[in-house]
Amino acid sequence: MRILVVNVNTTQSITDAIGKQAAGAASPGTEIVPLTPAFGAESVEGNYESYLAAIAVMETVRAHPEPFDAVIQAGYGEHGREGLQELLDVPVVDITEAAASTAQFLGRRYSVVTTLDRTVPLIEERLEVAGLSARCASVRASGLAVLELERDEQAAVDAITAQAARAVEEDRAEVICLGCGGMAGLAERVVERTGVPVVDGIAAAVTIAESLVRLGLSTSKVRTYARPRPKQIVNWPPKAV
Predict the structure, then answer these.
(1) What DSSP string describes 61-86?
(2) Cβ neighbours of residue 202 under 8 Å, at least 6 residues apart?
(3) Is pLDDT above 80 for 149?
(4) Please, which pLDDT band fits residue 240 given cuts at 50, 70 and 90?
(5) Which side of the chain, N or C, has fewer Cβ within a 10 Å radius?
(6) What is the greatest pairwise CA distance in the chain?
(7) Geometric angle at alpha carbon 85, from 80 and 88, rounded to 5°
(8) In this structure, what is the dihedral angle of CA atoms 210, 211, 214, 219, given to the nearest 10 degrees?
């Protein structure tokens, strides 16, 4: 089984960390192929960057030369999953939905701890679209930018665990979801601080993708995610300026 794990930003070190986390969660015989988009922002922290990332991820997957069995979109709260589901005949799993759906097996209510406050509405909207918001106790911001997660790991751990603890104590969350692909590998540290289950979206997405492939299931093409209709697309890809 081969699973593409596509970073939504262009920072290679984040792709490497995502790939490592995904490989650690994969079953024997599953090949993880981490991909970095050829264009886009170095980190995705707003609507413009998120829509740009959606295009970049779709084009990166479309251009991949080798066959694959599933795709994971490794951006929390980002746009584009629906477009991938139209384009592909294999399962597409988004880490936002993977983490939240997994959390609902583990407790009555879950909270998401993410990066900057400006990303909170994007995550809330994606959970609403996916039908996963009813049991979400809160989406909390750690105040750290995506790239700061790498620069000072201890500061990142402190900020994330502090918000996770507040989610449990103040928002009555029973499960925590790590709300950024760049937080891969931090789950154990948050468990130590909060004492509740912590779901890493990358690991959850790998497990779900593997299960869908083994069950022989993929996206329905009857209506919502039918393949795009054949038509002329003008001036794409855009010429360099």
Answers:
(1) HHT--S--SEEEEE-TT-S-HHHHHH
(2) 5, 18, 21, 22, 25, 72, 74, 95, 181, 184
(3) no
(4) low
(5) C
(6) 55
(7) 120
(8) -90
Phi, psi of 7 (to 5 degrees): -65, 150
Q: Which two tokens stand for residue 77?
A: 């709260």
Spatial CA neighbour of 97 closest among 230, 208, 184: 208
Q: Which residues contact 105 (CB under 8 A, 6 or more apart)?
A: none
Amino acid present at 55: I
What is the C-alpha separation between 38 and 10, in angstroms, rounded?
7
Which residues, 6 or more positions from 56, have their beta carbon under 8 angstroms from its beta carbon? 8, 10, 37, 38, 39, 40
Average pLDDT over residues 182-207: 89
Amino acid residing at 135: R
- Quote the percentage of the chain above a pLDDT of 90: 83
